[in-house]
Amino acid sequence: MEGLVQGKVALITGAGSGVGRAACLLFSEHGAKVVAADINGENAEETAAMVRDAGGECIAVACNVADPASVDAAVAMAVETFGRLDVIYNNAGITINPIPGKGMKSLAECEPDEMKRVEDVNINGVIYGSQAAIRQFEKQAEEGKGLGGSIVSTASVAGLMGYGGVLYGTTKGAVVQFTRALAIEVADKGIRVNAVCPAGMLTHYAGMNPDSEHRERILQGMGAAHPLGKAIDPRDTASAALFLASDLASNITGVNLPVDGGLYAGRKVGG
Ligand SMILES: NC(=O)c1ccc[n+]([C@@H]2O[C@H](COP(=O)([O-])OP(=O)(O)OC[C@H]3O[C@@H](n4cnc5c(N)ncnc54)[C@H](O)[C@@H]3O)[C@@H](O)[C@H]2O)c1
Predict the structure, then answer these.
(1) Is the shortest distance between the CB of 164 and ligand 1 below 6 Å?
(2) In whole angstroms, what separates CA 235 from the centre of its chain?
(3) Key word Oxidoreductase present in the record (predicted)?
(4) 2 found inside a domain
(5) CA distance 35 to 248
(6) Does ligand 1 come within 6 angstroms of the Cβ of 40?
């Protein structure tokens, strides 16, 4: 049976860990040729090796999404290696480092430098990735290599509702609105633009440790916060991104899809 993204070339950022690594493996299982991009080139290479070990096609590239030249180079590498680009998954993201033993910083505690760093990665990183992909999609269309392409980004449920750090949520809210506005701008070019909005996942994000000896207890706690009662796994988020990237979603654009066990839908009143 054909995979959901059979033969498509997908560039995935933040590919060295968590959701990005899960997405590289899942997109490859579904037939994509994958470019695993991460600011940590060693971790990206480790992901690429995992994909190849599983029988897939994958190259790694060291890429800082906050630097447009670095993003352009990653797209160029995808085209040089696999001949084209069909999907960019703008997944890389960071948050303000928590205060050890105290947790998330309040807005009043955040410093301008760290605020700028989070904005650069979470907002500009998505913008630069989308720009580079659109330019490549347009070039392919001009060369008669097919119209359109698919852009997926990882926003967060924190971009839809008050949830966790204020500044982080603000950057993800920007991704949510960017997704809608860009979807309208490029719809007539056959380019679809969507985002996934996960709730908390146990990854290396925000200084968490997915290999913690308390893993099961942490996952239980995370799950208890959602109506469905299960913690979100990075592969749950990667699955939503895969669907949005695939032709199954060929008439879906401008959507910010929660992957949150029902958290954003609301809460039961009483009983
Ligand atoms: N884990 C959560 O609770 C959670 C919840 C909602 C949304 N998200 C979002 O999911 C996405 C993936 O996060 P994760 O949980 O897998 O975290 P993670 O820390 O495990 O992985 C993030 C990856 O992004 C890479 N990265 C960081 N800055 C980069 C840059 N400038 N350029 C390229 N790569 C960079 C890191 O090296 C890392 O490999 C992020 O956008 C994050 O904001 C995470």
Answers:
(1) no
(2) 11
(3) yes
(4) no
(5) 22
(6) yes
Give the mutation target among 11, 17, 124 for probing the ligand 1 site: most ligand atoms within 8 A of CB.
17
Task: Indicate if ligand 1 lies below 6 Å from the C-beta of 19.
Answer: yes
The percentage of residues in the chain with a pLDDT greater than 90, rounded to a whole number, is 93
Structural domain of residue 28, as residue ranges?
Answer: 9-260
> Residue range 10-21: average pLDDT?
98
Q: Is 20 in the pocket of ligand 1 (CB under 6 A)?
A: yes
Taking the chain, what is the end-to-end CA distance rounded to the nearest angstrom? 45
pLDDT at position 258 = 98
For tokens 């609301």, the residue is 266
Outline where DSSP puts E strands in the chain: 9-13, 33-38, 57-62, 87-90, 149-154, 191-198, 256-259
Going by alpha carbons, the residue nearest to atom 22 of ligand 1 is: 14
pLDDT tens digits, 141-173: 999 999 999 999 999 999 999 998 999 999 999
CATH assignment at residue 83: 3.40.50.720
Ligand 1 atom 32, closest CA: 64
In a domain, 103, yes or no: yes
Answer whether 169 contacts ligand 1 (Cβ < 6 A): no
199 domain-assigned: yes
Which residue's CA lies nearest to atom 14 of ligand 1? 18
Residue range 115-136, pLDDT digits in tens:
999 999 999 999 999 999 999 9
